[in-house]
Amino acid sequence: MTHYNEFGLAGQVAIVTGAASGIGRGCAVALATAGCQVVVNHLPDEADKVEELVREIGSFGGQAVPFAADVSQEDQVEAMFAAACSRFGTVHILVSNAGIQSGAPFQDMTFEQWRKVMAVNLDGQFLCARAAVKEFLRRGPQPEISLATGKIICMSSVHQIIPWAFEANYAASKGGVMLLMRSLAQELAVHRIRVNAVAPGAIQTPINRAAWEEPAAMEDLLKLIPYGRIGQPGDIANAVLFLASDLSDYITGTTLMPDGGMSLYPAFRGAG
Ligand code: BGC
After folding, report:
1. What tens digit of pLDDT does each residue of 160-171 get?
2. Is the pLDDT of residue 90 over 60?
3. Which residue's CA is the nearest one to ligand 1's atom 10?
4. How far apart are CA 72 and CA 76, in angstroms?
5. 68 CB under 6 A from ligand 1?
6. How far is the CA of 81 from the centre of ligand 1 (A)?
7. What is the pTM of this model?
8. Minimal-distance CA residue to ligand 1 atom 5
């Protein structure tokens, strides 16, 4: 059992994008359990799922409010940060998690498919990070709340370094997330704003259902994971809690890779 109160996050305000399901949902629950006030971002057609999430968080005394916004739309992202600040006063933590996949053999990939993935996975990171940084700088340091003036955690993927056939748009977007994150970390450390990434491997969520639902698919997947199990949203939430908390106060510009060893080129074990 994780002792979430040890993270010292009580009273901080967090925005989690793409929180209706999967990793984002897990992060929202974990941050609320740790005592954060959480804005759970979702798409308009996910309102039912988020209502249930807000109820679940309320059932253990946590605080969460839903906000529908498409992270690729500038006006919607600005409206979300304005709503978070008017409700909770400020924002301390951004978990920029919203992401999509839309793969195809490269010669068949439409420009629309390319642009949609870039829009959500990379424009969304830009828009949310910019809004968060503006608010962190406006508010200034609050050392009694957190040593850092603000914390940004970008949800990346092992595919920020592992090339991915038939998912060129996705891999390119995550490679972009990595250098966006590192550039922001370099630029903003002087303001005590920490920017880090979490790059999950295969986590059991709706985005990759095809990779784990059938036993044969799961068997193939496990060949890529030396640690011998698929990941769970909680594995990622634990990394996010660490990067959001003062336990990681000296860490910026880093990627944590909770992936069960997927990025260790497991096929080379005894080969090559
Ligand atoms: C993708 C998943 C995939 C995993 C490992 C993630 O970023 O969203 O679909 O299973 O990487 O390949």
Report:
1. 999 999 999 999
2. yes
3. 202
4. 8
5. no
6. 28
7. 0.97
8. 202
Q: What's the distance, Cα to Cα, between the start and end of the chain in Å?
A: 40
Residues in the chain: 272
Ligand 1 centre distance from Cα of residue 144 (Å):
38
Q: Is 76 in the pocket of ligand 1 (CB under 6 A)?
A: no
- The percent of residues in the chain predicted with pLDDT above 70, rounded, is 99
In this prediction, residue 1 carries a pLDDT of 41
102 in ligand 1 pocket by Cβ < 6 Å? no
| Strand 63-68 with 37-42, pairing | parallel
Give nearest CA residue, ligand 1 atom 7.
157
The CATH code of the domain at 5-204+232-262 is 3.40.50.720
**Which residues have a catalytic role annotated?**
170
Q: Which residues pair with 195 in a beta bridge?
A: 152
Query: Which residue ranges make up each domain of the chain?
Result: 5-204+232-262
Per-residue pLDDT, averaged over 96-106, amounts to 98
Q: What is the mean pLDDT of residues 48-74?
A: 97
Question: Which ligand 1 atom is at minimum distance from the Cα of 262?
Answer: 5
Query: Among all chains, which residue has been given the structure tokens 């010669």?
Result: 107
Angle, helices 22-33 vs 47-59, to 10°: value is 30
197 lines ligand 1 (CB under 6 A): no
Q: What is the 3-state composition of the chain as percent helix, strand, coil, each rounded to the nearest 5? A: 50, 15, 35
pLDDT digits (tens, 9 = 90+) for 121-133: 999 999 999 999 9
